[in-house]
Design goal:
The structure holds 2 protein chains of 2 kinds. By secondary structure, chain A is an alpha/beta fold. Chain A folds into 3 domains: about 180 residues, FAD/NAD(P)-binding domain (3-Layer(bba) Sandwich); about 140 residues, FAD/NAD(P)-binding domain; about 70 residues, BFD-like [2Fe-2S]-binding domain (Arc Repressor Mutant, subunit A, Orthogonal Bundle), CATH 1.10.10.1100. In chain A, about 35% of the residues lie in helices and about 20% in strands. The longest helix of chain A is centred in the last third of the chain and has 28 residues. The radius of gyration of chain A is 22 Å and the shape is globular. In chain A, about 50% of the residues are buried. By secondary structure, chain B is of the alpha+beta class. Chain B has 2 domains: about 180 residues, FAD/NAD(P)-binding domain (3-Layer(bba) Sandwich); about 140 residues, D-Amino Acid Oxidase, subunit A, domain 2 (D-Amino Acid Oxidase, Chain A, domain 2). In chain B, helix 1 packs parallel to helix 6 and helix 3 crosses helix 9. The longest helix of chain B has 18 residues. Chain B is globular and about 65 Å long. Classes of the chains: A alpha/beta, B alpha+beta. At the A-B interface, helix 14, strand 22 and helix 17 of A face helix 6, helix 8 and strand 20 of B. Strand 22 of chain A pairs antiparallel with strand 20 of chain B, so a sheet runs across the interface. Chain B: It comes from Ruegeria haliotis. Chain B: This is FAD-binding oxidoreductase. Chain B: Keywords: Oxidoreductase. Chain B: Pfam families: DAO (PF01266).
Chain lengths: ~475, ~375
């Protein structure tokens, strides 16, 4: 059966850039993405926005339109609304599309699973009305809907961006509760001089904060001890800031304190991972070209460690160059010459990224639950106390704890609780995260009906074209 | 580290053996290369089944089934056991004939625990079954347990009686020196009077170190489980002539098995799935229970399991060494036998004999007597 040279999973900035580069040099490629249009999370609906004026979303967003346009013109077989639920190191990819299962073969695989928001397991975080800043962005970009009078709590550029976007649209915001601890400013200060080389980015960030302050939104800094109020639904947020306890009423609370790689696909493939102590998350082990411990599987973009959209574009192109070399379409010296610019750009971005990572490093008090009844695993409703009881019964390994308590067994397959569990076990065992490890994950990576699975088809590269 | 008995393998057979030995005062060490119930004992379908057993296994399986009924109380720890009965569905008259023949054979041996049921009774127990199905056979004592919980229950009970469970310790070398067995683990050396091989899919390697060759193979039976759905089936379900097996747990999730095999990568301690075969399993499940068409699969997996050519386990003493015993090769139906096998092994180790006839399970039953 004719196979593709390369299949790219995910059409965000990394996947689109990789596809453009590969197509340019004649490789036969397939791009699989869940969306109706390419763009990924960051450029979601950038070419067909429901908003009358996308300028309110900022130039970082609108600039994505050109990339999406270039991708759509590239010679790639783009499977839209393709929900990939299994990627095997035997070069087989299984996906659902229009209620049926398809199997596709390819020589090389590029995974671009992107990032997801780090959960903030504070008391009440699972109440209806509590969402993430990312979901506020999805609502805005996909459906042009907003939540009036919401509280935004946490820290990091994405949080400030969505608040600014709300303000530009004239949507009232109840408060911005910033949890960045004062100590982070001191910790990050030594890294500032090198970060200053990316002055425009720094200025952009500062102007966001200025925009929010000038709008007169209640702005609390150094907040801690956050607690969502309410029994059936969120009705407000309690926290301590400036030495006093505050309570603010709101039916919608958006939480955010940074993003982490979406691990489900790379973990399910059993690729080697390592703990990133700066970003406090697992990331795939990969070389400068994104090549992983399984040579024909590469990973690009935030899914390989948080690099942001610009970094993801560069990483996607680098991955493509290496794959072209592996496919015999590009001699090594040509690959290296073509790669020099992007490698240099990534190196130049690194100090700024390190500064941001340190400045907005989420505190342990917000990363890990500290009230016994707080849920860690939402799907199977496992609380901190239940996990601790399982640990005390001898389940010291994430998988043993999963088998004993069912944490991580639900439909999200540990996307929400995986990192939290690694850190909790690391604390309880008094051992580093590396020694603790992570869940052993299984396909499917999304719920799949028996009917969908039973309609099983093979995709031939020729037929697809 | 010294002990009276060294048990290799921390699955349900090893942990149950440790429990019964420790309870009777023996000092016991269990060596487990990963962690308790990592492979077949922890990831199997959880069926606790007497129905349809091979004749040779029926006495052991019946005794084990009695033990399951009170096991959680006896161990002081929940095994997740629920008695729900089990039904094997007959799709047509040929299946019914198979059942009638088996019934005659069972009656000859004096067994009465399997009961043939009519089309109407089948429908009474399983209202959502495909109306084409003509009947079935049931066993009332059967049910299911939660594999990891049950194995861990044995482990905790064994530990309470003083057994030591050492996880993360693989046996690299094992030899008989004088009156002792010396085992070299990954980090530690162990010495014991007696060794018990409960190493599952790795048991042929341990048997070899003991001195016994055995034609053991391994495979990766696959399973899938759905998200929670409304309760529609109380009994554990199988089929007489088709690859179907499923059960709905109390939380509403439905586990679908049936014996389709994935790829067993024993050298790398892992399995890979064969999705086209799982697609067939999905088709079969929907054929028997059309209500499952829309149910959502949440996870799919496979475990590494050991098989003997006749699908019967090895249970008994080593033939080429003294003070060594085997319990492995359960061929994907050993979970239910765990409780009684623990007792049998303890009897063999402590008294040199068991009240059960174990001839069918001898390790040397495949040795050629004549070339």
């Amino acid at each position: 059966m004719p196979a593709f040279d390369c299949a790219i999973v995910g059409a965000g900035p990394a996947g689109m850039s990789a596809a453009i580069e590969l197509a340019k040099r004649g490789a036969r490629i397939a791009v699989l993405d869940r969306g109706r249009r390419a763009g990924g999370q960051i450029y979601r609906a950038v070419t067909d926005s429901p908003l009358p004026d996308t300028q309110v979303l900022g130039s970082d967003y609108t600039e994505g339109a050109a990339l999406v346009a270039a991708f759509e013109q590239a010679d790639a077989t783009h499977f839209t609304q393709a929900d990939v639920w299994h990627v095997g190191d035997d070069s087989r990819i299984l996906f659902s599309r229009q209620g049926e299962t398809h199997e596709l073969h390819c020589r090389e695989i590029v995974l671009c699973p992107g990032a997801m928001e780090r959960p903030m397991p504070i008391p009440g975080w699972t109440l209806p009305g509590v969402m993430t800043a990312g979901s506020a962005q999805v609502m805005l970009k996909s459906d042009a809907t907003v939540a009036e009078g919401a509280i935004f709590a946490g820290s990091g550029p994405l949080l400030y961006l969505i608040v600014a976007q709300y303000l530009r649209l004239g949507v009232p915001v109840a408060a911005l509760v910033d949890t960045t601890p004062r100590s982070n400013y001191f910790d990050a200060a030594p890294m500032l001089p090198r970060a200053l080389r990316r002055l425009p980015l720094l200025k952009k960030g500062l102007s966001l904060l200025r925009e929010i302050r000038n709008a007169g939104v209640p702005f609390f800094r150094g907040a801690s001890a956050l607690q969502v109020l309410g029994d059936e639904h969120a009705i407000g947020l309690r926290f301590i800031a400036g030495g006093t306890s505050h309570e603010i009423g709101a039916r919608t609370i958006f939480l955010h304190h940074g993003v982490q790689p979406n691990l489900n696909m790379t973990r399910a493939m059993d690729l080697e991972h390592q703990w990133n102590p700066e970003q406090l998350c697992w990331q795939v082990k990969s070389d400068a070209f994104g090549q992983t411990s399984v040579p024909h599987v590469s990973v690009a973009g935030d899914g390989a460690g948080i690099v942001g959209a610009d970094g993801a574009r560069a990483a996607g192109r680098l991955t493509a160059l290496n794959i072209l070399h592996r496919l015999g379409r590009l001699p090594r010296t040509d690959r290296d010459n073509a790669a020099a610019a992007d490698l240099g750009a990534l190196a130049a971005m690194a100090p700024f990224r390190a500064f941001i990572d340190r400045l907005y490093r989420p505190t342990k008090a917000l990363r890990l639950p500290n009230v016994p009844t707080t849920l860690v695993c939402r799907c199977e409703e496992q609380s901190l106390a239940q996990l601790r009881a399982g640990f005390d019964q001898g389940a010291r390994d994430p998988n043993a704890l999963k088998m004993l308590t069912r944490c991580g067994m639900g439909p999200c397959q540990g996307r929400q609780c995986g990192h939290v569990l690694t850190e909790l076990l690391s604390d309880w065992r008094g051992e580093p995260a590396e020694a603790v490890g992570y869940y052993r994950l299984r396909s499917p990576q999304r719920l799949l009906t028996l009917d969908e699975l039973s309609r099983f088809h093979a995709v031939s590269a020729e037929a697809a074209e | 580290m010294n002990a009276d008995v060294l048990i290799i393998g921390g699955g349900i057979q090893g942990c149950a053996t440790a429990y019964h030995l420790a309870r009777q005062g023996a000092s016991v060490v269990v060596l487990e290369k990963d962690y308790i119930a990592r492979h077949a004992s922890g990831v199997n379908a959880g069926g606790v089944r007497l129905l349809g057993r091979d004749m040779a296994e029926v006495p052991l399986s019946k005794a084990s089934m009695e033990m399951w009924q009170t096991l959680s109380d006896d161990l002081g720890q929940d095994t997740g056991f629920r008695r729900q009965s089990m039904i094997n569905i007959a799709l047509d008259e040929a299946d019914m004939e198979t059942l009638r023949q088996r019934k005659a054979m069972m009656r000859c041996e004096g067994y009465t625990h399997e009961r043939i049921i009519s089309r109407d009774e089948l429908r009474e127990h399983l209202p959502h079954v495909n109306p084409d199905c003509v009947g079935g056979v049931t066993s009332d004592l059967d049910g299911y347990a939660i594999p990891y919980m049950a194995t861990n229950a044995f482990r905790l009970a064994a530990e309470r009686h003083g057994a030591q469970i050492v996880a993360g310790e693989e046996v690299l070398n094992l030899r008989r020196v004088g009156d002792s067995w010396l085992a070299q683990g990954t980090t530690t050396r162990f010495e014991a009077d007696t060794v018990v091989n409960c190493a599952g899919a790795w048991a042929d390697r341990i048997a070899l170190m003991i001195g016994d060759n055995v034609p053991l193979s391994h495979a990766a039976p696959m399973l899938m489980i759905t998200a929670r759905m409304p309760h529609f089936a109380k009994p554990v379900v199988g089929a007489v002539s088709r690859q179907l097996s499923f059960k709905q747990f109390e939380n509403g999730t439905v586990l679908i098995g049936g014996g389709a095999k994935g790829f067993a990568d024993r050298a790398n301690n892992r399995t890979r799935l064969d999705y086209s075969k799982l697609a067939n399993a999905a088709r079969t499940a929907v054929e028997f229970f059309p209500i499952m068409r829309r149910s959502a699969i949440n996870r799919m997996w496979a475990g590494l399991e050991a098989y003997m050519p006749d699908n019967l386990p090895v249970i008994g003493p080593a033939v080429n060494a003294t003070r060594a015993f085997h319990a492995f090769g359960f061929s994907a139906h050993g979970f239910q036998m765990g409780p009684v096998v623990g007792q049998v092994m303890a009897d063999l180790v402590l008294n040199g004999q068991s009240s059960f006839v174990l001839d069918a399970f001898r390790i040397d039953r495949y040795d050629r007597k004549v070339l």
